[in-house]
Amino acid sequence: MGGSGMTAQTPQPAMTLGSILRTRWRRIAAGAVLNFGSALAGIAAVALFTHALTAPAPGQPALGLWRVAGLGLFLVGALFGLGMVSQSLIVGAGHAIVHDLRLRLVRRLMATEVETIDGIGSARILSTLTKDVSMISQAFNSLPFVIFGAAVLICGYGYLVWLSAAYALALATVTVLVVLVARRLAVRAKHHRRLAREADTRIHEAFEALIRGRNELRLSRVRRAAFLRDGLQPAVEEARRQESTADLFGVLTSNVVNAAVLLTILAILVLKQGLGLGSLEQATAATTLILFIRAPLAGLIGSLPHWLAGTVAVRSVDSLALAEQAGEPPLPPAAADWSRLDLSGLGYRYPARGADAGFAFGPVDLSVKQGELVFIIGGNGSGKSTFARLAAGLYPQQQGDIRFAGRSITATERDWYRQHVAVILSDFHLFQQALSADGEAPSTEAADRLLRLLALDGKVRLAGGAWSTVSLSQGQRKRLALITAILEDKSILILDEWAADQDPEFRRIFYTGLLPLLKEQGKTIIAITHDDHYFDVADSLYKMENGLLTRIRGGRHGSPSAGLAVGKG
Ligand SMILES: Nc1ncnc2c1ncn2[C@@H]1O[C@H](COP(=O)(O)OP(=O)(O)O)[C@@H](O)[C@H]1O
Ligand SMILES: [Mg+2]
User: Is the pLDDT of residue 566 over 70?
Assistant: First the structure.
C-alpha cells in the first residue's frame, strides 16, 4: 500500500545549527583564526600597558615610553583591523547562512507533497518561514560574539597562567561556576522559548483568521470580541509570558557575569593583600585583564540564549518533515499520445480527528480515453474534490493504481505524470505570470483569442508574459485561471465545479463553445459539474456518492474490464 510512504520524500538526517554552520565552515574558520589574532593583540596591549604603568620609576618603563607608545598603537591597530576583518567575515557567513536557509526552506516546501502541506497548515508554515528563520538568523548573528568571546577568554587565560597560577585558578573557578549557572539558566530559558514558539503558531493562525475573516469580523461586534477574547489574546498573552520568562533568565545570566567578574577581582585582592600572593604588577595586570575580558565574556554568555533559541527554531523547522531535494531531477519528455488513463481501485482516507473517523474515499475505478470529455456529478461532500486531487496526482492514493501512457504511476513517476495535468480547484491561485508548456511567455494571439472567447478582452491583457491585472471578480478570476491553464497546454484538464460561479451566458459558452473546442484540440477533460442542462455535451457521465463512483452513461470504450470496474458503487 502506498500512502504517504510512497511520496517522493526522502528521509534526511536531522538539521541542527551545527549542520547548517558546516555549510560555511571555511569562512567561519578563517574568521575565527583572525579573531584569535585580534584577541591576542588586545591581551598583549593590556599586558604592555599594565607593565608600563607599574614600571619601577616614573617615566621609565623597561621598554622606554616611545617604544611602548609605538607598540601600543600597533597592537590597538591590530586589535581593530583584525577584529574588523574577522567579524565581517563571520557576520557575512551568518547572513549567507540565513540566505541559504530561506531558499532551502522554499525549495523544500516546493518539493513537499500537497498532502503534507495541507496537513501542516499554512499558519505553521508561515510562522516557520518568518519566526523560525529569524530566530535562526539571530543565533548566527550572535556568532561573532561567541567566537570573539571564546578567543579573548582563551588568550586571556594563557596570559593569566603565565602571570600567576593562583590568579588563573581564581578566574578559572569563577568561570566554571558562571558557566554552570549560565547553562542551567539557559536550559530553563530554552524551555520557555519553546512554549513561546508554540504560542507563536497559534498567533499566526489568529492572524490568518484576522485577514481572511475580515468581512465577518467587520460585520459583527460580538465576533470581534469573541475573536480577541478566545483567539488572539490568549495566544499573545502566552507568548508574552513565556518570552519574558525566557528573557528574564537571560538578564539574570548577564548580571551573574557582571557580578562574577567583580568577585574575581575581589578574590585577587584577597589573594594579594591577604595571602601575599603575587606582586603589585601581577595583581594590576590581572585586574586590568579581567576588566578587559568582561565585555567579550558577557557577549559570549549573552549569546547563549540566542543560540539555544536557534536550536528550538531548527527543531521546529525539522519537525515539519519537509521533503529534501537537491534539485529538480530531470523528467522524461511528456507523453503526447497516451491513449488512456486508468484509475483502478483508488482509495484514500483522511486522517481521523477525534470522534471523526476520517472520510473514506473509494475504491474508485475510472478509465478515460485521450480526448474524452468526462462529467462527474454528485452531492456536497461526496468526494468529488478528493477525486480531483487524487486523479491529478496531488494527493497520493493510499490504495489502487493510476496507469497512464502504459506506465504505473508510483512515487517516482508522479511528478512526470503531474506535468500532464492542469487542475482548477475551488482554492485555485491565480498567478500573475502566465507560462506556456516550455516555461516561456505564451503567445499573445492565443491569449487574446481565449480572452475574447471568455469576454475578458476589455479587462485583462497579456503583457510581457504576465496578466495586466488579477484584481477581478471571483467569476472573472476563474475564467482567467482557466485561460492560464489552457495556455499551459497540458493534455489533461480537471475542472472542479468551474462553472459554479459563472452566469448562464458563460456557462453556455463554456459547455457549448470552449469544451468542444478543447476536445477538438485533443484535450482530455474531467469536469465536475452540477449543470444538468449540458450533460449531453459529455462523452461519459459519472456520479459520485459517498466516495464511490457510478457510471451513468458512456465511458465503456469497448473495454470489458473498465465496464465491469465502474459502477460498483
Ligand atoms: N482536508 C480535509 N481533511 C479531512 N477531511 C476532509 C478534507 N477535505 C475533505 N474532507 C472530507 O472528505 C469529504 C469529501 O470532501 P470533498 O471531496 O471535498 O467533497 P465534494 O467535493 O464532493 O464536495 C468531506 O465530506 C469531508 O468529510
Ligand atoms: Mg468539492
Answer: no
